[in-house]
Amino acid sequence: MKSTEDRILLAHGSGGRLSHELVQKSLVPSWSNPVLNRLDDAAVFKLSGRLAFTTDSYVVSPIFFPGGDIGKLSICGTVNDLAMCGAQPLYFSVALIIEEGFRLAELERIVTSIKEATEEAGVEIVTGDTKVVPRGSADKLFINTAGVGLIPEGVDISGSNARPGDKILLSGTIGEHGLAVMSQRESLEFKIPIQSDCAPLNKLVVDMLAASPEIHCLRDPTRGGLATTLNELATQSKVGMRIDEENIPLQEAVRATCELLGFDPLYVANEGKLVAILPPTDAERVLNQMRQNCYGREGAIIGEVVEQHPGRVVMRTRLGTSRLIDMLSGDLLPRIC
Amino acid sequence: MKSTEDRILLAHGSGGRLSHELVQKSLVPSWSNPVLNRLDDAAVFKLSGRLAFTTDSYVVSPIFFPGGDIGKLSICGTVNDLAMCGAQPLYFSVALIIEEGFRLAELERIVTSIKEATEEAGVEIVTGDTKVVPRGSADKLFINTAGVGLIPEGVDISGSNARPGDKILLSGTIGEHGLAVMSQRESLEFKIPIQSDCAPLNKLVVDMLAASPEIHCLRDPTRGGLATTLNELATQSKVGMRIDEENIPLQEAVRATCELLGFDPLYVANEGKLVAILPPTDAERVLNQMRQNCYGREGAIIGEVVEQHPGRVVMRTRLGTSRLIDMLSGDLLPRIC
Questions:
Q1: Which residue of B has its CA nearest to A140?
Q2: Residue A189 — pLDDT band, cuts 50, 70, 90?
Q3: How many of the other CB atoms lie within 10 Å of CB of B119?
């Protein structure tokens, strides 16, 4: 029988001695900073101005996938939610729900991924929580992160700010994250050369805002894909949108896999892409700046905001026809993030 | 066969149409406020000063128990973590991980509990997230909350601030939450007249700070109970502690149930109690103020901080002997919060 010492026990979540050891040996040293290290009930820091605050739980399955894992995802996803308000992400919480029996070696890999992602994004983990539930009461590991950021003066980004005439920019190719995760599901029998695009986009947003502070909307097309994100923005801003299929960047492997499986890449999740909506006068300048950043190299102008058909998104297909692009209904791929 | 319409489906977590309907029909109307209602990727608000930031995931089983439910707990627990830094809790996130098949009627009860707890504590839910996992991948419902609060000028509370000579105050009777939850476990065959003490303590803390801004430490003895909390504070502050068993408030039903089951109430979780450590000159004044508040009526001075045996807690028992009170080791009652 294998030793239980390399696995998470219920007592690791009891709040007692093993909980303290787990936190102090496995978590705090890797994420160390003066605010976290105080280990009080809450983190304390000084901050003044317009703050952005967001949270997401990550339940992706499997927890390791090409291009990332649940740890990297849990930082990048929340960094991106803050960046989509134009905020500089600063302080993060990380809360783990671990299934009894989870391997400590896997936890260590994920703790390291989290550390690397925070370093790339320039954020600090300042508070956290660990719960352990009995075997069968959760699937391996769920992570919640919440983040606090600061919005620079003069930035006013919201999903309700799109105006007719604005251009719609997309920072790169779509559909990789969803397919990369799906390709690892146990039931799937083929392997595809697709990596998740999981990445922190806050520095790309800083670059774009330097090129034009007049960016009206930013959003990352995660669950529900590009189609759902554009519908959300059209609804919130009470405008219509027209996009061109031939301008939407797409990797050949993604196109082929979607065709094979009957998926529409417009509905497949991304974790390292953003949609930006801004005045036409600034569009080329922002696009050029975007393309200088490693996460925006394949950026493109994919369409524009119109007065007609408010709340609806229409796509001109490669065949020249028009197609109404609805929000995702049903669930294409569960547990993608 | 029962209709699936009154249950949570995987598609409620897809990010698509059903997710939007769930958020806009079942969550936002109940928790409505101008910041939340914008529904951008992050909440935006102005705030300046020393902020406190904390998170906890709640995995309590069962999700309904005498005196509360997972919703009330998820607000009170995080309110209390902020209050234990002396902060005024302000802005909250709520992230749900729901098992496919969960009843919408139960979700509604919990959403209402959350609303009532936020109203009592005076906090606002400004951002959130909903994930759905397939049946068997989680146990009914897990909730994560994170909270942001503001620390008033002149308040400096930390687990490392206890000084020899300080008095140790406890706001009331111990052990109710743990026993109340345990009494609902399916395997248990008896019922006990014990309700969870689950409550928001932020207003009690405001009252106590009004009586003395010199409070050195505050902590709520949750997982691991009073014994573990005192050990944490003794370790963080590098001091010893002496407490008197006969001064620790205890309900007769809790005493009897613990005796029957072989539990030590010092290790049983509380969700509406706090420990305060402060200079002896202010102890009676703070105690009197505490007793005016409905959550501090049975407050008591239970011991003092000493120079000797740093990091250790010693209790004088009712029999007059001395007993070393260690931190909880192992897990007394899993999934208590």
A1: B137
A2: low
A3: 12
